[in-house]
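During the reporting period the student researcher (J.K.) took over the structure-prediction task from the postdoctoral fellow and processed the backlog of single-chain submissions. One of the processed entries is reproduced below for the supervisory committee.
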Amino acid sequence: MTRTASSWYSGRVEQQVNLVRWGHWGQPVLIFPTAGGDAEEIERMHLIGALGPLIDGGRIKVYSCDNLAGRAFAARTGSVEYRCALLNRFEACVAEEIMPAIRTDCRDHGAEVVAAGASLGAFMAVAVTARYPWLFRAAVGMSGSYDIEGLMGFAGNEDYYFAAPLSFLPNLGDSGLLDQLRRRYFILAYGQGRWENPDESWRMAGILGAKGIPNRVDPWGPEYDHDWPTWRHMLPIYLDDLAP
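J.K. obtained the following structure tokens:
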């Protein structure tokens, strides 16, 4: 399996950004790590292995970057204001730096990417797709933690408002952005085992549905915990449906 890595310093987030790619051809997929994860987390946790047949068959080309904002929230780095600002800037980094790097690598500057992730990675996948629908064709959120305010126990500010779909989508009026979102697709999957919170996915789906944005909630059984074995089972099935 072809694997490459690149990195650069981003003035937006004032940190090094790492981007890893697995595969050589197919539908580009950007997978966000969990809360404190780095760009190689999905390989260490054997998700890349689970996606191996799709990658080796040239149906998908997988990318992953460090979850810089998720890491800060999980570690409670700095003040709440700093973490919210970093979340806002990290999403801009995805749109303005990571996505151009992916499109350049694909030699297709109009390539539409599938965003995916689990837990806080699901938040990132859904958030960037909702905010930049001209860059992403679909989002797959697994065991999503979409209410970071509730999870971390803080009151979000303006930075958080514009970065969190639970905050900005309910107030989104008729616009070009909403028109584009109505041509996108969100898959919200969760297990019913240990550590799962199905209400998060249903709340997110309710907000999407109220705006006429296509989405599907997929409940899996009680044997599926909020853990990597569940996500290794889920993601190949969804990407097999989304890939050509």
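The committee noted the following: The chain has one domain: 3-242.
J.K. will present the remaining backlog at the next meeting.
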